[in-house]
Amino acid sequence: MTRTITFFILKLLILILLQVVIFNNIVLFNVAMPFVFIYALITMPITWSTNASLTIAFFTGLIIDIFSNTLGVDALACTLLAFVRKPVFHLYEQRDEDLGGHKPSQTTMGSGAFLKYGATMSLIYCLAVFTIDAFAIFNPIRWVEQVVGSAIFTFIIIYALDSIFTRQHEKRL
Amino acid sequence: MHELLAFFVKHSKWFLFIVYAGLSLMLLFKSGPYQHHVYLTSANAVTSAVYKASNSVYSYFHLREMNDDLNQRNAELQSEAIALRQQLTDLREAQLGDTLQLPDSLRQYRFIVAHVISNSIAQPYNYITINKGSAEGIRPEMGVVDPNGVVGIVNVVGEHSARVISLLNPNLRLSCRLKGSSSFGSLVWEGSDPEIALLQELPRHTVFQPGDTVVTSGYSGVFPEGIPVGIVMADNEHKNENFFTLKVKLSTDFATLSNVQVVIDSKKDEREALEAADYTVKTK
Q1: Residue A171 domain-assigned (yes or no)
Q2: Contact between A54 and B50 using a beta-carbon 8 Å cutoff
């Protein structure tokens, strides 16, 4: 358990750093932004309580907000993401939480289920972020472009990260 | 009470969600002191340290573009500087032409102000190039002076440039006399020091003092009479010959030559015709 927590904290810190140093500077076609750090949030062990994941998510979002000067936006979106995490997970993974503390990934869920899970979570996050942004300036076409573009971009990178970092010996149960 | 607590525990995730969402919304919408607190902006110590570190890496990525930009900018500024310098030169020439005071004896002469565009003082035979030529009325054999004294004589003329034989050229012999005396000799560069020339063939009976001014004689018609050339130096050896040779410190500073005036003698044609007539009489 301690090993899992340490590994998670390390992963979270590295992803936050990557997000603020590299990915925050990338905007494809002037619409699509990758929110890569949510990979840490969506791969939190599913057995962890919702309260714990809410807290972790809120402060992760707050840190990202502080770095990118978007106070509140990412914190709110992350909180939302953590809240819907379990329901979305069980949408695609029918088995109970007897995964044994395993994190959602291609190897534990299977590629198809993780694909759907990751895509849904990316879409929810981008929807949340750009809807919150839209309170300031609402441009429907740009809003759709941003949500769809960013969700696809985020998901592609998350899927790639998962393919690279999921250890092969982590057998599917 | 127990049931209430149980209710809270059972639905704790909802309450926690509401608390965090409320906090986020507060940060998002309430324009309170939090928004401008330095710890909650990218200006705090940790954030700025991270950004500085990453920037120290990022800054290398754009070096080529930045270099291109700087080169471009440099070229623009350089051409601008050249244009301005040109303008300044033109204005200075115009000003010099306007403020030049001509003594009465010089009325027959006109001056064209020109700018030195190339100059040498270290060669055995030195030449100067100026930026005016035949289009501006310059012809070969015209004298060139600057505010301090004689510079040289025009040698080859192009349309908008001309080559001047510098006084620092052994090919140029200038007819000179000592100011306040009628004896004249010919001045020639001694070949090494750009500040010193020799006044040769000065008659033995000439009385002079170190510090006397050497001026043009006006005999050649190239220069008006009385243009300063230099000053007799102190360390002259008196050789037992029929003629003195005096060391003359040139009054023109050839090393910093910039604006010069080309002397146009309006009566030159008349005099040449006269001298030619004299020559034909003699030969007859």
Answers
A1: no
A2: no
Euclidean distance between CA atoms B138 and B77, whole angstroms: 34
Contacts of B40 in chain A (CB under 8 A): 65-66, 71
For residue A38, the domain's CATH number is 1.10.1760
Number of domain units in chain A: 1
Quick check: B17 and A54 CB within 8 A? yes
The per-residue pLDDT for range B171-223, each reduced to its tens digit, is 888 888 888 887 888 888 877 778 888 888 888 787 888 888 888 887 777 88
What pLDDT digit, counting tens, does each position of A101-157 carry? 567 777 677 777 788 888 888 888 888 888 887 776 777 888 888 888 888 888 888
Q: Is A66 helix (H, G, I), strand (E, B) or coil?
A: helix
Structural domain includes residue A172: no
Q: Given CB atoms, is B59 within the 8 Å cutoff of chain A?
A: no
Residues of B in Cβ contact (< 8 Å) with A66: 39-42, 44, 47
Report d(CA B216, CA B229) in Å as an integer: 7
Residue A107: give the domain boundaries.
2-165
Among A78, A83, A129, which would you mutate to test the B interface (most chain B Cβ atoms within 10 Å of its Cβ)? A83
ipTM above 0.90 for this complex = no
